[in-house]
């Protein structure tokens, strides 16, 4: 199968049309904000994906499965998993309509207790889902369990130290903004400082090899308050904003201020981790001697 993703212009159009037709929320601005931000994040994921299409992928917390669809369109075998049947229903329709059953499978899964075998997946994509679990360590341990040794996990989490989240909390306090997580009926939403995110990954035997961030500049917050008839104009501008934001999101010292971080992690087994720690301790001892 020839590569169909990107071009991001086609992906953007399909993604926005699908969500606007299928997602029903009370506040249209909340929908617009989420779609705009998610579109940008989902495109950045591809910076971390290998060119080879071998291996089995898990799109965990896939929702309506835009990333599952994108991976399948690119000829990669993927399982999309989500707990909410209301999300999976339209996703299955999308897979069927796109004739991607050969590449994509969708099933209901609880992140805290996955039914998959250990060391099953070569790649796991978990985008803005881990923070919605009651206990992130339990769900994170399941990710580590089903990922093969030296396998790759691409995990996106909110960064509470960012400018964006500080503005969101200010606007919520002033009653100018409705929290999307409450609107979508999500009980849990953990916002985590970046240093705690790295500590969590380390505890899960996931070594962070690369990190990007997004929304260095709080443009989506501005977009949130614009009338819907300006959406086509904003979408034209969004291409260049995403390019600029992606550049900032790769820049050392600046990227730590993004509202969301995307981590590329490599699973290391416990023995390798202990050996690494012992070597570091030996080096410290030699310096102190």
CATH topology: Rossmann fold
Amino- and carboxy-terminal Cα gap: 60 Å
Please give the domain count.
1
CATH superfamily: Vaccinia Virus protein VP39
How is the largest sheet built, in terms of strand order? 3-2-1-4-5-7-6
Beta percentage is 15-25%
The topology string of helices and strands comes to HHEHEHEEHEHHHEHHEH
Tally of DSSP β-strands: 7
What's the Cα radius of gyration? 19 Å
Globally, the shape reads: globular
Ordered list of secondary-structure elements with their pairings:
Elements: H1 8-22, H2 28-44, E1 56-60, H3 66-73, E2 77-82, H4 85-97, E3 104-108, E4 121-127, H5 136-146, E5 147-158, H6 163-173, H7 180-183, H8 194-203, E6 206-214, H9 219-224, H10 231-248, E7 260-267, H11 270-288
Parallel strand pairs: 1-2, 1-4, 2-3, 4-5
Antiparallel strand pairs: 5-7, 6-7
Helix pairs in contact: 1-2
Explain what the structure shows:
This protein has eleven helices and seven strands. It has one domain: Rossmann fold, CATH 3.40.50. The N terminus is likely disordered. Helices cover 46% and strands 18% of the residues. Strand 1, helix 3 and strand 2 form a beta-alpha-beta unit. With 289 residues, it is α/β, with parallel strands linked by helices. The radius of gyration is 19 Å and the shape is globular. Helix 1 packs antiparallel against helix 2.
